[in-house]
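Can you give me the bound-state structure? Components:
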Amino acid sequence: MTYTSSTQEVKKSEWVDVMGDYSLVPVPPEAQRTTMAIFVVYTGVLACIAALWGGGVLGLQFNVRDMVIVSLVGTLIQGVIGALTSYLGGTSRLSTYAAMTWPYGRYGAFLWGLALAGITCGIGWFAVETWLFGIMMHDLIPGNPLTTVGIASIWGGLLMMTTAAIGIAGIAFLSYLTVPFWIILAGISFASGIMMGGGWENVITKLPAQPAPFGIGVAQVVGLYIAGATITPDVARFAKNPKGAALAWFLQVMIIENFFLIGAGLLTLAMGGTRITEALLAVGVGIGAYLLAILGQWTTNDNNLYSGALNFTLISPISRRALVITLGLIGTATAAYVGFVAGASFDPFIAFLTILGSFVPAVGGTLIGDFYIYRGLYKRLPAGKRYELKIGDKLPEINLTGWISTAIGGVLGTWVITAGIPSINSFLISMILYVILAIALDKAGVELVIGRYEVTKYGLAPRWYIKKGG
Amino acid sequence: MEALRGTKKLVNSYLLFSLITSLVGLGLAITITSRNAYVAFPWYLSNLMALAFAAIGMLRLRSLNDPLRYGVIAIQHSWWVLSVGLAGVLFYPAPYFVEVAGVESWTMFVISLIWLLWGFYVVFAVNKSTKAPIAP
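Here's the bound-state model for the whole set.
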């Protein structure tokens, strides 16, 4: 697909989107979407059983008043971080990994992205969530051959792969159909669960089963969706209005996520456990419970896979769609294997993903520090020029400034500093460190850059792909 | 322009129907609240959402004459109303709701079914006439 961008510099030539869905080139005006559409896609990603389980954890640890405060503070932090990355994506029109080329270099963007999204989301969490889907189906419909954990993981994984393979249009389609439906079904579950647990009067006076400090609760809420807040450019790059994209993220987190977290928390306080689907089954909305589980997992996991595959396009010689199918099959096979092998557990794998995930806020901090403080406040570049991909520009292959700040920020924030909220510590340390390093190096006239990559009409496509003739 | 006029008539009828029936649903929700507030909660939630989607849709479409732009917004709002309809079709006939408000629940079931089926028709008809994507 060929198009001419509206920016002055690239009017002279044309971008060629070799990977599909504008993975390595800026999204053109004709593919841009309204703020409402971006809001719905974000909400589709958020609407999953895991978000309700997150609320359930709060319900075990806090009373109603504290739970509301913890949820509001946690989502406010997510909202601000995600709004900043959304605006970055909306102005650059590039995916998270393409945008990471500036602070990390092209290989750096791939390698850090691989650890954070390629492995964690693309294969890792996709496999874990597909396996969880299998377990959920097994619990909902026990005794059916199609709903054994292994078999349900296979058909569930393939379903999730289809919309991710279609691309943003497929993800949006599913979100349009699912989002209002899912919010209502979750609402029914909350209301009926509270009623079954003795009503509002009972919930308001209940004490949590496993009380926890305020900071832990906020860290849990932030950690629940910090990866999502960091990779918002993957969706925001399609926004017609970058400020609208930022607002869409902020509002969906502050309104919809709080509704899910607090609602599920209240249900848990009332029933003593996060019995979301059980509450629906108990009131006779059986098909609703199945659809809540299937569609919720589907709208979230297709985005995991989509985002992971985008990262691989930076060095892969195959198209984005082929990557989605390859990664999807690997993830589905892994989930099915674990489902079929009795006694197998994803626990060690989840622990590994959690370690990798600890660096996600650090990447967000570096990206925001580079875009807003170094290039914005210090270099005084207008937003549209900070991450503007231009044919002929020479971008770094490796930019060590981003590597150093992220590695130190991630390690210090997660494992060394024990006070505060780990994800926020990582975020702030890497951001501050990056800004100090970048400004100091700039003033000294030194660059921590290895190699340069010349941008061609194929955007950030791998060099061997271009040599091969595209 | 003639073709768009027909599309506008279809979309306006759908959104106006959704707006009026969601107000009816809200009225019924008020009467159910005194019987069981927990049963009434999803009534409020679904009808307020349908009302908002229909009303905001009508406002956004009011002065649009570009077929593609009109089609994009019409399809968005039709999707949302039909999605509320899908939830309604599933929950209104459930025993929990019928026990508390039988006639009201079945009335809203029929209305939700209309939101759902008519919504699908509107989405595909607008897609055909304006060339706006199915998932804009």
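A couple of observations. Residues 1-13 of chain A have pLDDT under 50 and may be disordered. The first strand of chain A starts at residue 2 and ends at 3.
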